[in-house]
Amino acid sequence: MSYEPISVFDIFKIGVGPSSSHTLGPWRAAQRFLQTLQSRNLLFEVKDVKVLLYGSLAKTGIGHGTDIAVQLGLSGDDPVTIDITHIQPKINDIAAMNRLVLSGLHEIEFDPREDIEFLVSEKLPFHPNALSFLATLKNDEAIAETYYSIGGGFVVKEGESVTGRVQAQLPFPVNTSDDLLHWCIKTGLSIHEIVLENENTWRPEQQTRDGLLDIWRVMKECMYNGCHAEGTLPGGLNVRRRAAGLNKKLLHGITYSDSSTWVDAIKGGGNGFNYILDWVSCFALAVNEQNASFGRVVTAPTNGAAGVIPAVLQYFLLFGEGSGSEEDRIIRFLLTSAEMGSIFKKGATISAAMGGCQAEIGVSSAMAAAALTEGMGGSQRQAMMAAEIAMEHHLGMTCDPIGGLVQVPCIERNTMGAIKAITASQLAMQSTPDFAKVSLDAVIKTMWDTAQDMSQKYKETADGGLAINVPLSLPEC
Ligand code: SF4
């Protein structure tokens, strides 16, 4: 069977907001272009560089920080390690001096207003998120490469296979949820065990476990930081941050000193329905407010939808039931949710420019629903049923970010994705999968069919929906 091997660390990537496809992907593309120049010993021969943005990257690139991402990538910064407080000063410096230091080594003239072109009426056929880098060398030779940001921070170069990764012989190859179920039945393993066996092909198990705990550390830090940052989000829409106010209100003046005592304080506040509901919203708001302000986030499976998984996982740890140590619960949750994300990527898309918001919030909700169900003791089939339910009720959801910013409706939408994941899980736990009318594979196919029928206006172009019906001067809805 031919399959695309996707690791849990392809689905969960530490990076910088606000968008995996429009920020992280173009950033990675710029880094890869630098690698080309360096591998050919041409870096110091470069006279100037131009960046051309096509399709959705051109239409919503300003709001999504695509121009900032390519400048940082060309400067040799990495989204995982960059000090996020240095981002804006660096961008301001490039604009003020009209100079950019390629890979931190070779200074060239670079005027972002002229050298980054937003070709809003041009689109390349392979994918709506396309960008080209054109370097002119001192001898006037031109070096050009085109990349596609295909969603979730994944990038492919023109002519390269979409799978990118060297084909690994996984013990349990999976393309569809039927494949996954087949392996679960054949081996008696749970979903997270199947995924872990596959991950062992790439690295020792301890490394996977440590990497996943690191992913959770960044997710948790992001929630904590978002719950303690006040003010207005950047971009001109004047969206007021809400997580910090909600955090204060829900804690009623209880004091804490760090993220671990903060979590204890939340847990000590009870388990009433509204209390829990408010916290799930607060966690999701916090992450996506951080994401909107170029904060450090984990792509899950995209940045726009980065709040759903942390919110549901934090809910599970604080208010849910499940066996095993906290570390084991975190690792299992992330493994199972990543597998769901990868099945959606293989059978449909996780790119809003291809499938609208069903591909972002819908997929993250399905991922969280399955992981929560398995974590709470549900069977593999109930976990898949939960993912199916979560996606079924996101089908057709459009992407229409106001002002091209990942703020409205994006931030609130993460709260909805998280709550739907919890409800879907509850429903699946109370149901018998034998009686389900819609399989997970059927809903994935339906999502893909819907994506193809969806008007281009609703695929991350800011040409339709809320993006055209809400004046930019309006405050937060
Ligand atoms: S509307 Fe949805 S898909 Fe579009 S940018 Fe916002 S979160 Fe992403």
* Shape estimate: globular
Radius of gyration: 22 Å
Quickly count the helices: 20
Listing every helix as H and every strand as E from the N terminus to the C terminus, the arrangement reads HEHEHHHEEHEEEEHHHHHHEHHHHHHHH
**Ligand set:** iron/sulfur cluster
**How many beta-strand segments?**
9
Range of helix content: 40-55%
Provide an overview of this structure:
The chain has 477 residues and is of the alpha+beta class. The protein has 20 helices and 9 strands. The chain has helices at residues 8-11, 20-39, 55-64, 66-74, 87-97, 112-115, 177-187, 191-199, 205-226, 243-251, 259-267, 273-292, 308-319, 326-347, 352-355, 361-375, 380-392, 410-429, 440-453, 466-469; strands at residues 13-16, 46-54, 99-102, 106-109, 116-119, 129-137, 142-151, 154-157, 296-299. The chain has a 5-stranded mixed beta sheet. It is globular, with a radius of gyration of 22 Å. The relative contact order is 0.13. It binds iron/sulfur cluster. Iron/sulfur cluster (SF4) binds next to α18.
Write the layout of secondary structure elements.
Blueprint: H1 8-11, E1 13-16, H2 20-39, E2 46-54, H3 55-64, H4 66-74, H5 87-97, E3 99-102, E4 106-109, H6 112-115, E5 116-119, E6 129-137, E7 142-151, E8 154-157, H7 177-187, H8 191-199, H9 205-226, H10 243-251, H11 259-267, H12 273-292, E9 296-299, H13 308-319, H14 326-347, H15 352-355, H16 361-375, H17 380-392, H18 410-429, H19 440-453, H20 466-469
Parallel strand pairs: 2-5
Antiparallel strand pairs: 1-9, 2-6, 3-4, 6-7, 7-8
Helix pairs in contact: 2-4, 8-14, 9-12, 9-14, 10-12, 12-13, 12-18, 13-16, 13-18, 14-16, 16-17, 16-18, 17-18, 17-19
Bound molecules: iron/sulfur cluster (SF4).
Iron/sulfur cluster binds at residues 304-305, 352, 357, 360-361, 399, 401, 406, 409-410, 413, 460.
